[in-house]
Amino acid sequence: MPVEELEDRVIITDPIDPTNTATILKYGATVISWKNQSQEKLWLSEGAHLDGSKPVRGGIPLVFPVFGKQSDETHPTFKLPQHGFVRNSTWEFLGQTSENPITVQFGLGKENVDPEAYKLWGEGKYDVTLILTVSLTKDKLVTSIDVENTGKDAFEFNWLFHTYFKIPDITDTLVNNLIDHQVVDKVLGEEYVEKAPAIGFHEEFDRVYKDVHEDKTLQIIELGKVLVNVDRENLPDAVVWNPWINKSAGMADFTPKDGWKNMLCVEPGHVSSMVDLKPGAKWTGSQILTLGGEIKIQANIY
Ligand SMILES: O=P(O)(O)OC[C@H]1O[C@@H](O)[C@H](O)[C@@H](O)[C@@H]1O
Fold first, then answer.
1. How remote is the CA of residue 68 from the centroid of ligand 1, in Å?
2. φ, ψ for residue 21, nearest 5 deg
3. pLDDT by residue (tens digit) across 187-208?
4. Hey, where are the domains in the chain?
5. Quick one: which of 127, 130, 208, 287 is 20 to 30 A from 219 by CA?
6. Cβ-Cβ contacts under 8 Å for 280 (sequence gap 6 or more)
7. Which residues belong to the annotated binding site?
8. Residue 162 catalytic?
9. Confidence check on the interface: ipTM exceeds 0.95, yes or no
10. Which GO terms of type biological process are on file (predicted)?
């Protein structure tokens, strides 16, 4: 069956090769598994809560309308909890929209969000409709988000696909094509220009790369082999995160405790600035994940 709807999740299967599947939890519309030839490509904590009691630690949680915790106390998103309210709301399964590539959609409106949480966003005056489209082919997983302002007031938001990749060993892993981009280093509390042609990992890592041109493919490379290519449409920023030893130890839902060795978040988003959406307007952003292929080196020519 190419689309199987269970009570709490939807499983999609590539009609050409049934060893390619994706599982989307209705809670948060979180993609919790992407298997290619039966091999899992996303990292999911063994301690992740999948029962709707907490945002999922792993997979592809969705971040909206605020990334992190807003520090500007005058902004209408400032009261919201870290990463907003869509990762912890239950989305509606809207059904299948295409057979090949197998594609499904999930929707979220004000009525699906806990009213107490919604009130924290601009005193609850905004109206928004979000549609998540998930599409799976042989070697690709595409997630696209449509944000529509269905209310009378303009609003501003961040968007982020908080993607956790499963990797064999973080110390053997590089991410390329971020050279010469402005970066906010949240660990050092500094902003500078990235000078490494490929970044490596040997301690806690939490950086927001700003305005990375869309033509840049971010490749996760392990021992000279491309694991996955991360492409983006309308998502100018990329967060790269690994909590390492101490941060992982402090997260109750992060298990096994040495799981940081086998995960890396590369997160396409619109987070260093906010999207301003007028009443009636619509905005779309996509994350395109493609497995394998050649190493591609791209300098900052923009
Ligand atoms: O624990 P949370 O809310 O899921 O956030 C996880 C991480 O998400 C990343 O996107 C942030 O850059 C990190 O600073 C943060 O720690």
1. 7
2. -140, 160
3. 999 999 999 999 999 999 999 9
4. 3-291
5. 130
6. 149, 150
7. 57, 82, 87
8. yes
9. yes
10. carbohydrate metabolic process
